[in-house]
Specification:
Beta Polymerase, domain 2, single chain, 10 helices, 6-stranded mixed β-sheet, globular, 2 domains
Amino acid sequence: MKMVEGRTVLLELRAGSHLYGTNTPESDVDLRGVVLPLPEEIIGLGRFQQQEKHGDEDTLYYSLPRYIQLLLKGNPNVNEWINADIIDYTVWGVVGAELRDNRARFLSKKLGLSALGYLNGMTKKMHNGGPTRDLGAKRKALVERYGYDTKNASHAVRMAREIAELFETGVFNVKRTGDREELIAIRNGSLTLEQAEHLIAGETARAEESFEKNAAGLSDKPDEKWANQFLMRWQGEIILQFIERTAHAGAGAGASEEAR
């Protein structure tokens, strides 16, 4: 059982290019995961939402309540975590399995529209250019070599296609098998900025058109009722276990006093 600062990891996976299937032998391994909060963070004054660390291995862990909140908001990045291939999970428990088995409950128009918003933001970022001081060394090198953020362009193309496929098929295709080589080539600078902008504009138009034609097949928003019951059930287990441990500890202390 893996722990993060005393919290049980419920689900953990390789993110980024490993998640999308566009990794190469040189790709970094970044981990993303969901953890159970501690009892004092559920019924006490303690609060924990996320832990993020950067280094040779970037990691990001959300508490279970925070993760559910983000799913209900239609956040496309965290939705990818429960639509990953089984082989990409490094920690896979009962709670994580139940979430993944019910991933369709979080596929909705809200997710698609949120993803379109992310896509537009990514496109504007690439169009506007701007300072590279906030980029990592590898991203800076791409901008300096090709004149724009080619990795961002590759992500934009991927996300646009994921959105279109979501509306067309009702499936969130995170693992890119059909266009893997193309996405890697874009990341490696195969397109000029003008060509990349043209491709992204076309894929974005497809996604928007797909929404207009097929969105009726999706629910307006995620299944909040199920998510709330799921969260209460698993957090209730933590509270019950905490009460039982406290009761046993109290009984043991009382017996010691009587023995004196």
